[in-house]
Design goal:
- With 336 residues, the protein is an alpha+beta fold.
- 41% of the residues lie in helices and 15% in strands.
- It has 2 domains: 200 residues, Lambda Exonuclease, Chain A (Alpha-Beta Complex); 109 residues, no CATH class.
- It has 12 helices and 10 strands.
- The N and C termini lie far apart (71 Å).
């Protein structure tokens, strides 16, 4: 008997409540430490907290939901393989806290039915797909196959509504076994026992500081403070030097598009393709009431700033840090 949870007639709030009962495929990348946006601790707090987990309702997710059925239709148009929605939350047959939402089910072939995971990427993010499927998404699809028992899956990737790719993802049973071991441990040892995972750097900005408080630096950090100030200076100088040097290359290239070294392309300077961009400022001016309906407060973050001149009060050090000569040189030539 299936433990799957039907989503027919389920409200969005009810779906969010159901997600708290287990680990979904979108949680996996964070739990195994591969997400750039969520930490294991954040997933843990979402599962044990009284508040509903965040739905991630932003411009990006709303666009994805709008285009998802259209990408599914286009997948069928391109491949000839029919797909259908999966109106349930899938539950693992052995571990009822391992769950998955599947975008579409692909009609069976000789390996049985398949999973279609739909992804959208901007031109900026498309580079992360150049050589392989980004690891968080690979983990997500393997988890979906683990929960459903399916043997194959494909990702339908739409890049800025102009490029379409179909990427096959074969099932990797060894990978699934190792990943499930981590997920089961997270649920049993952290969520069920209410033991928070260790902090990671992703959690630091979510810590709210106490205004007006201070702490004196210790001897170990005092030495590193000089290095921190040096690296801050190095970063600023390097950015300026890079921009200045780049202008020299542009000046040399003139109207040409590609700069080569022994016939091999070294740099490209060309016009971007024309894009349609939502005019948020104009929309807010012409539709203030409607614009206000969709505003939401951003979560506060602690901002770390190294104060200029603060390192002057540090005791003398034997370490000396010097900027490379290239970063202290003055740019030459006319700047276009």
């Amino acid at each position: 008997m299936s433990n799957n949870i039907s989503t027919v007639g389920m409200t969005h709030e009810q779906w969010l409540v159901a997600r708290k009962r287990g680990i979904g495929s979108s949680d996996v990348g964070a739990i195994v430490g591969l997400s750039k946006y969520r930490s294991p601790r954040q997933v843990y707090l979402e599962k044990i907290g009284d508040d509903l987990p965040r739905s991630g309702a932003n411009q990006s997710s709303e666009t994805g939901l709008f285009f998802e059925p259209r990408v599914a239709e286009y997948y069928t148009h391109r491949t000839g393989r029919k797909v259908e929605p999966d109106d349930c939350i899938r539950v693992h047959p052995e571990h009822d806290f391992l769950m998955a939402n599947v975008d579409r089910i692909i009609e069976p072939n000789d390996r049985g039915p398949g999973i279609l995971e739909i992804k959208m990427a901007s031109d900026y993010a498309a580079g992360s797909w150049d050589t392989q499927v980004p690891l968080p998404y690979f983990c997500q699809v393997q988890h979906q196959m683990s929960v459903t028992g399916f043997r194959w899956a494909e990702i339908a990737l739409l890049v800025s509504i102009r490029e379409f790719h179909v990427i096959p993802i074969p099932r990797d049973d060894e990978f699934i076994a190792q990943q499930n071991e981590l997920l089961i441990r997270f649920w049993r040892e952290n969520v069920e026992k209410h033991v928070a995972p260790t902090w990671t750097y992703l959690d630091l900005d979510s810590l709210f500081g106490k205004p007006g408080t201070s702490i004196e630096i210790n001897s170990e950090l005092a030495e590193k403070a000089r290095l921190l100030v040096f690296l801050k200076t190095l970063k600023g100088k390097a950015e300026k030097a890079y921009d200045a040097l780049r202008q020299e290359f542009k000046l040399y290239m003139g109207e040409t598009e590609t700069l080569t070294i022994n016939g091999t392309p070294f740099a490209v300077w060309k016009n971007t393709k024309e894009k349609e961009k939502f005019d948020e400022k104009r929309f807010a001016q012409e539709n203030p009431a409607l614009y206000a309906q969709y505003l939401r407060k951003a979560d506060p973050e602690r901002r770390f700033t190294v104060k200029d001149g603060a390192a002057q009060s540090l005791p003398p050090s034997t370490e000396k840090y010097e900027l490379p000569a290239l970063l202290t040189a003055q740019p030459t030539g006319d700047q276009p």
